[in-house]
Amino acid sequence: MANNEGALDRAIRIIVGAALVASPIGVYGIENAHAWGWIGLLPLMTGLVGICPTYALLGIRTCRAAG
Questions:
Q1: Which residues contact 38 (CB under 8 A, 6 or more apart)?
Q2: Pick from 43, 56, 57, 58: most CB atoms within 10 A?
Q3: What is the model's pLDDT at position 28?
Q4: Which phi-psi region, left, alpha or beta, contains residue 29 (left: φ > 0; alpha: ψ -120 to 50)?
Q5: Where are the domains of the chain?
């Protein structure tokens, strides 16, 4: 599967995902991390990999075409 996220899209996903993962840990401690930490894993992982399954289903590409 080809990348379907552009550089800006990926950067925003990584920053938002990392913030969502880190904020509950910093506020509540690792043993009490709540749902926002788990939800933050989705944008973080899609940003790191560069592939968004929802974009693929909808035919959206935010990256430049290859070639």
A1: none
A2: 43
A3: 66
A4: left
A5: 7-58
